[in-house]
Amino acid sequence: MNTGANAAQQEYWNTVAGPRWVGLGGFVERRVQAVNDLLLARSAVAPGERVLEVGCGTGAATIPFAEAVGERGRVVGVDISEPMLAGARKRIAESGLRNVTLLQADAQTHRFEPDSFDLITSRFGVMFFADPAAAFSNLLPVARSGGRLCFACWASLEENRHWLIPYEVALRHLGPPAPKDPRAPGPMAFSDPDYVRSFLGAAGFDVIEIYREAPNIICSSPEEEAEHACIMGPPGRLIDEKQPDAAVRETIRREMTEAFAAHVRGGKMLLPSTIFMVTAQRASR
């Protein structure tokens, strides 16, 4: 695998984030089920189509796409993280689907077969490119003439309470993160729609549309949400950066649990999120 363009992300997702994600045993995937449904609907995927899924992770979105295209269709899932792909292999084997191929590769630089996919899609897998314009320029020729692009990305931290609640707790104890480019690879790298339009246009995509959606995040118990927030997402990244001692970590975890508990209603906790559904096309020839 070419490791040059996104070497830092390859290291992070193979040694830190990927093992953590898989270790959560499907926790993350259950939270964003509503996003899967939105992505499937917005992509207008149809039986018999060939689909490239970028950043397929553990395969939670791969399976519904494979079911939608049916036996005559094909889904190729690509990810930079071997631990995530190991989870995807297990999930797909258990599903019994035979129309899925998984590939460990950097989608920014991998030489895919040109003109081979009707749809390029991703659920939160494209915000980690070192150079989005280069990445989508590499992906454009992969689409057939008139082929479609459809991906989900996060809006700002302030518009996502499921992250903001624990982040404010961590911020109170640890202080702000070191200054960095808001467009650096990370969960909210694509939170500015004008920026997304600019690099997709530069890559050669047209008919670019961006839809704001507000799916609920299906939360687990306050305790589990706090454990998750301590190792994943913006609060987890802040904790990794600051490296607090065990006592401070425990205080943060306890206060996160208390903050989440305040949002439980009738034994359930649904927290609003804001995402963008981005669609575009490769021009017909």
How would you describe this protein?
With 285 residues, the protein is an alpha/beta fold. Strand 2, helix 6 and strand 3 form a beta-alpha-beta unit. The model has no long low-confidence stretch (mean pLDDT 95). The strands form 2 sheets. A 7-stranded mixed β-sheet has the order 3-2-1-4-5-9-6, sandwiched between helices. The relative contact order is 0.16. The chain is globular. It is built from 12 helices and 9 strands. It is 42% helix and 20% strand.
Class per helix and strand makeup:
alpha/beta
C-alpha Rg, in Å? 19 Å
Number of discrete helical segments: 12
Q: Looking at the structure, what is the overall shape?
A: globular
**What summary fits the major beta sheet?**
7 strands, mixed
Uncertain stretches: none
Span of the ends, CA to CA: 32 Å
Residues in helix, %? 40-55%
Order of strands, main sheet, comes to 3-2-1-4-5-9-6
- Beta-strand portion reads 15-25%
Q: What would the average pLDDT be, to the nearest integer? A: 95
Helix-strand topology string? HHHHEHEHEEHEHHEEHHHEE
Q: Could you tell me the number of beta strands?
A: 9
